[in-house]
Amino acid sequence: MFTKTILLPIMGLALFCGLGGAPTFLVPIINPPFADNSPHLPTLLSMAMTEKKKLNARYERIYTQLENLLQNTGNLISRMATVAALLHHKMPHFFWTGFYLLDKGELIVGPYQGPLACQVLGKNSGVCWAGILRHSTIVVPDVHEFPGHISCDNRSNSEIVIPLLGKNDQPWAVLDVDSQKRDAFSEIDKQWLEKIVRLIPPQE
Ligand code: SME
User: Fold this and answer.
1) Exposed, middle or buried by CB within 10 Å (0-12, 13-18, 19+), for 80?
2) How far is residue 195's CA from residue 90's CA, in Å, rounded to a whole number?
C-alpha cells in the first residue's frame, strides 16, 4: 500500500525531473519570479555604480578641456561663458547653467546657457543668495521646498549653487545650475563643480 500510493509517485517524479528537468509547475517554487519583473537589487546597484563612473569620467574630460580652453584668455566674461557653455552642453541633467555676479550689493545675471533667466535676484532670498550668505555650496533636491526659492522658469525642479570665493575669501559670484529632474545633483556634481569654479581666477 505504502509502495503503491506514496513511494511510486515520488520515484516517478524524481525520474521525470532527472530526465526532463523540473516540471513547469515546480519552476516557480525553485526559482520564484519577482512580483513586477523589475531588476533585482544587485543589478540596480551595479547600474548605479556604472552611472557614477560615467559621470565622474565625463567631469574629468570636461575639467581637462576647460583647463586648456581657459588658458586662451584671461578675460573674466569669456572664461565664465566658456565654463557655462561646455558644462551645459555636455551634461544631460543641466537645464540652466550660469553665473550670477555681485554688483553693488545685488546679484546680477552673468554668462549663461538655457532658458531666459531672472536678471536681478532680490536681496537675501533664494538659493543663490543662500550660497553667498553661507559661503558654501547649496544642493537643493526639490526647489519647491526651499523657502524663498526664486523661480525663473517653472520647469526647474532641483538646483545646485556654488559660491566663487575672492582673494579675501568673500564670495563675489555664484555658479548656478538647475535641473528639470528632482534630486539631480549628487556629491559627484558638488565636488567637480567646486573644482571647476576654482579655474576662474578669484576677483576682489
Ligand atoms: N533659483 C535661483 C534663481 C536663479 S535661477 O534658478 C536661474 C534662486 O533661487 O536664487
Assistant:
1) buried
2) 17
Residue nearest to atom 5 of ligand 1 (CA): 152
The predicted model scores a pTM of 0.80
Portions of the chain given CATH number 3.30.450.40:
44-197
Express each pLDDT in 26-46 by its tens digit: 444 445 555 566 778 888 888
- Beta carbon of 150 within 6 Å of any ligand 1 atom: yes
What ligand 1 atom has the least distance to the C-alpha of 128? 10
According to CATH, the topology of domain 44-197 is: Beta-Lactamase (3.30.450)
Alpha-carbon span 144 to 150, nearest angstrom: 10
Per-residue pLDDT tens over the stretch 1-12: 444 555 445 444
Instruction: Give, rounded to a whole angstrom, the gap between the first and last alpha carbons of the chain.
Output: 99
Nearest CA to ligand 1 atom 1: 150
Q: Please tell me the distance from the alpha carbon of residue 83 to that of residue 67, in angstroms, as a whole number.
A: 10
For residues 176 and 139, the answer to whether their CB atoms sit within 8 Å is no
